[in-house]
Amino acid sequence: MKSRITIGRRQAVALGAAAALGLTLAACNPDNGSGGGDADTTSAEGGDGGDRGTITLGYIPSWTDGLSTAYLLEAKLEEAGYTVEHEELNEAGVLYTALAQGDVDIYPSAWPEVTHASYMTEYGDQIDDLATYYDNAKLTFAVPEYSEITSIEQLPDHVDALGGQIVGIEPGAGLTEVTQNSVIPTYGLDAAGFSLTTSSTSAMLAELEGAIAAEEEIVVTLWRPFWANASYPVRDLEDPEGALGESEGLHFLATGGFAEEFPEVAEWIGEIHLDDEQYGALESSVVNDNPDDPAAGVAAWLEQYPDVVGSLEG
Q1: 113-138 tens-digit pLDDT
Q2: Quick one: how far is CA 260 from the chain centroid?
Q3: What domains are defined for the chain?
Q4: Is the alpha carbon torsion for 287, 293, 295, 296 positive or negative?
Q5: pLDDT digits (tens, 9 = 90+) for 251-260
Q6: Which residue of 27, 169, 262, 269 pairs with 1 in a disulfide if CB–CB is 3.0 to 4.6 A?
Q7: What pTM was computed for the model?
Q8: H helix or E strand, kind and range, residue 230
């Protein structure tokens, strides 16, 4: 399996910085690579064999909104004659850095309005915002349905039952930042004896599954839309102080200059919009029905919803 970094198409990235970034990349799907050729060899005007250009999609695979939309874009872009490559990363900060430097062309499901606002402050002038494809994303704290806890403000009363632990996800996630800098101080959770445990989304879900199996108390950081809300018997906690922020849109973000280099792709992406039913069906098909083959999940969804995203004009 191989990980690939695209260098030099839009910006001259120092080799040392590129090497450091490469250490953070997860192995990409070998079925989607182009054999490691530099993206400079193709362009929006088309390359050898009728290839219309190479587009690299970057995402964190455990954040399944990005996984699902990456394979959705791949299906339609390859149908239209583009070569698509995947870069699987493990931290939001690394992903935004790669996007800003041009090592990744598109981040297919970003949260720039609230959750990733700090990254947009840092990198926004190097990023093209192509479209908002979903309108009602939100961050949450959740507990099992059998829990008596109904609100974040009640957590201090249950610190012993919860072991003083809030189970979180990746350290660099926007949800982690909001939890540490907003939720915990707003509700006095640190003073009550709570600490936030971070590792990964998969580790958080394993903790959640284990607690539910044992009918133990647990509080985890979650978000909507996310398949786990339907797969596990969990309930969002009320957030009367609004510390988790308002609902926000999910965006397709691209590296700066992408819309000029691939105007037909940017225009097509700008027309994509999914409602709750359509998005829920997409993620369920990818994550639950086809967990080992995201492309098959997307293919099944496209059969069910053939007209939702349309086709990219040849």
Answers
A1: 999 999 999 999 999 999 999 999 99
A2: 24
A3: 15-135+248-304 (3.40.190.10), 137-236 (3.40.190.100)
A4: negative
A5: 999 999 999 9
A6: 27
A7: 0.77
A8: helix 228-231
